[in-house]
Amino acid sequence: MVSHCALGTWIVLATATSLATACGSPTDPFTSGPAHASVTGLVTAHEGTPLPGATLRIGCAGGGSAVVMLTDSTGHYVANLETGSDPFDGASGDVLCHFAEPAAENVRVQVDTLLGFARGPLLAALQFVDLHEP
What pTM was estimated for this model as a whole? Predict the structure, then answer.
């Protein structure tokens, strides 16, 4: 009969072995494939009032699809972004992203900024980008 302690050790060893095997494979999710980032912020008019229902488009270099969304009733937005398969070497890196409101013609406010992206089954750090109409 296996004790709970021995069983727990076996499960941890099996998990560590599986992770080590995955990290050494050619399709290591920590060094290749798409990367992820989370971003949130506030969109405001030139006088500082929030812009609820504003259309926001976020497009990043690196081959990922652009994200288009509406701000909530308080002018805030949250977006989860994904790059293409290989925007940089290694587990993490910065990617240039373009934020524009509105998403189509007659852009009122826009900003280009670097966002940190990470690969693998990790929680991406939440980054803040506010857009303020000039």
Answer: 0.73
